Each structure stands twice: as structure tokens, then as C-alpha cells.
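Blinded run. Sample ID left blank on purpose so nobody reads anything into the name before looking at the predicted structure. Input follows.
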Amino acid sequence: VFQKSGIRVIRLDAAGYAFVAALAQGRPLQEALERAIAIDPAFDLAAALADHLARGSFTDLGRNEPAERPS
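Blinded prediction complete.
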């Protein structure tokens, strides 16, 4: 962790980066998890969420509406 002038830089492994990048793109939590697990099957979702929530990494916990089902 590096912090200077109010900016915090956190080193992430590849799976952690894939997880956060997917969320930053507005992808659903399930998809972000799938991307992380594709890189590291041992990715710990609970630990990742706890870490980012504790650090204040998330700025919005919005809910995306599911796509409409075809009739």
C-alpha cells in the first residue's frame, strides 16, 4: 500500500485486478468473481470484499437490473 496526497495505491495480484476491473466496468459481482476465478481458482471473494470495503475502495453499491427475458 502506498499513499501520497490522498491517493492510495494498492498492489493487486492478477485475479484481484480482474475482479476490481470488472466491477469498475459496471459488471455484476458474479461476473467479476468468475473473471477472478478463471485466473486463480483459489480467489477468496469474502476476503476481497472485506478488504475493499474496509479500505473504502467502493464508491457505489448500485444494483444493475437484469436484462429482460425474451417473451
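Unblinding after everyone has recorded impressions. The first strand starts at residue 2 and ends at 4.
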